[in-house]
# Entry
Amino acid sequence: MVLELDPENKGISIQTEFPCYSIQFQDESNLKKTLEEITSKHGQIQGCIHLQNHDSPETDSEEQLFHSFMLAKHLKKHLVDKEDSARAFFVAVTQMDGFLGMGTEKPVPSTRGLAGLIKSLQKEWPQVLCRLVDFDPKLDVDDVSGKILQEILDPDLSLSETAYLGQERRTLETAPLAWNSRPSKKLDQKKVFLVSGGAKGVTAECIIRLAQSHPARFIVTGRSQIIDEPAWAKGLESDALQKAAIESIRQTSEKPTPAKVRKLMDSIESNRSVQNNLQRLRDYGAEVEYIAADVTDEQGLLEALNPIQKKWGPVEGIIHGAGVLADKRIENKTLEDIKRVYQTKVKGLQTLLEVIDESKLTHLILFSSAAGFFGNAGQSDYAAANEVLNQYAIQFSQNHPECQVVSFNWGPWEGGMVDEDLKKMFEERGVYVIPVETGTRLFTECVLNPPDEPLLIVGSTMGVPEGEIPISNDSKEVSRVLKSEKLPVVEDHRIGENAVLPASFAQSWMESSCQNLYPGLKLTQCSDFKVLKGIVFDSELQDSYTLNLKRKKSESKDELVLDAKISSSMGSKPRFHYSCQLKLQIRGNSESTGEDPKNWDIREETPIDGKVFYENGTLFHGLRFQGVKKLLREDTSSLLLACRLSDFDSKELGLFSRSRVSPMILDLGYQAMLIWARKHYECASLPLAFKLSEHFFAPTPQEEFFISLNVTDHNSNRVTGDLYFLDKNENVFSQMKGAEVTLSKKLNPLFASA
# Structure
């Protein structure tokens, strides 16, 4: 059956062998009636494939998004409130870029709003497969249709987004932020920021914290007019203010209903809050102008802004914090609700960019929400709007590389509606409430020293079920194309003539993929890692490699254990390259720490320059892998290295740059074992396996760190030991127990020729 969208309420005649209906989305009664007619004639609606037109201009694309909301609203009773238990699905199909909008094709931003809707529906309709599938526009229709069918039949209900670039299936990945160590930039006190929604709430607290260290010029917009407080309210708080408000209403001969009293008190308290926050900014040395305006009103905002820009100069930074909520489940939302929530965020940003000179912008700071990135029940419109903000951030960053762009996907903040009981419930569900001190400090640091990626998720995974592992099937598969030209760093990892994928990269792929597939869980261990057949970048290299994750039985209900294997296809049989076991737990259920390694004393008695090991054939690694700076100590059972990562563009690591602990760091652990093996056996060696690997925190990039090796067993064939990775303060940030390398003198000439 075909449902033809008819946004302009025009009848459309379509020649098709399938039943065809034209839906008038602006007329909800017509939409409801049409769906009921379909049910009466053809039986229960079990699923919907919603195709999005990717060639539409922005305005039309937004209308399509609103139509998607209305369709979902009225399909709820068909897909959820049905008597039978048959599988139901709501699948939205886009052709953004095959990267879920994260690539370089620059899709219409509002198309990305579908993702927020779908992810929120997934929270509201847990028994329905809700999924957005994005395709490379270059894929042919037969290929696309086959892959849509595969997605519909996928037994895994936990996955909300997939994409296809060529034949490669992708999902969105998150990674812990590895804060860079480059010095923070100072702000000129004359730098002009235009701040929407900056007079109250979280946005106000953030810019006040920024002003403490860097007082600049702030043009603050808000919906409230600043008024002189009436005499009857001055100096009064709480109950006294309420009594005075009641009396004030009575004096107007009106009945002081609770709603009228609350409205009057809110206006007084809001006015006080605005004035207090503006004064706090001034107290820290900032210059402040306040504009009472609707952030979506371009003409009104421009008229108010122009005289200020003439006085101060052009706006150089935008901080967009304005937003409204209308939290309701999809079946209870009105089109007016959806548009109001959406437009405040999206049209607000568009307006801000229209009223300033984009070429002068040095900062674009957006207040998005974790509700957009992860979805949230009751906030489908808010989630959609914030996903569109994220898309704008990605594209603006690509189009204006000189501008510092950050889209904060905030979780809930402490204070306000988040009391202690709600805070506890959030934390039990993996949603970490952001303390005001922490959030404002992070905001300030990001303004002064922005992260490498424009999207930043803070404090939340939004909706991990309490005491449950969110998995609905026993296995998952992730495919990845590995080519040396797309992973330039492996050119410095050559053994003989061929580039070889480092074992640490395979470990990082398995760990990061696992963590990203289960964002509400925390990866605690990688164990029983084995190199089965390494990946060599030669003429026989397969383009596509598959990571298979298979669930194992676990004694604990809040623990997930997975067997992981990386394989490629060799004819009809798979070729296995690496394997391990991964353990995840509900966040907050356990905290592990690193052990204190034996025999460590980080002092420089007679250090040896690390360069010698790369020059004498002990190590084969090229410049980007040459992180061993000094050999501080070595004996018959231990070794201690001082290390620092080489200075290179992290983009050369491709997707491996998103690992919690860089695979470049882990590779240096194996290099430590190679150095010890060469000294004691005159043999080159290669990684083979380890028993257990744990990461406790991400070290600061480009800072010195140390690697301690305790050799536990060795012979002429292999060396076994425990590796400890320490930061500059001698805290263990990662450890690898029972690491093994295999020894072979046949490798010596290959190492020497590298």
The radius of gyration is 29 Å.
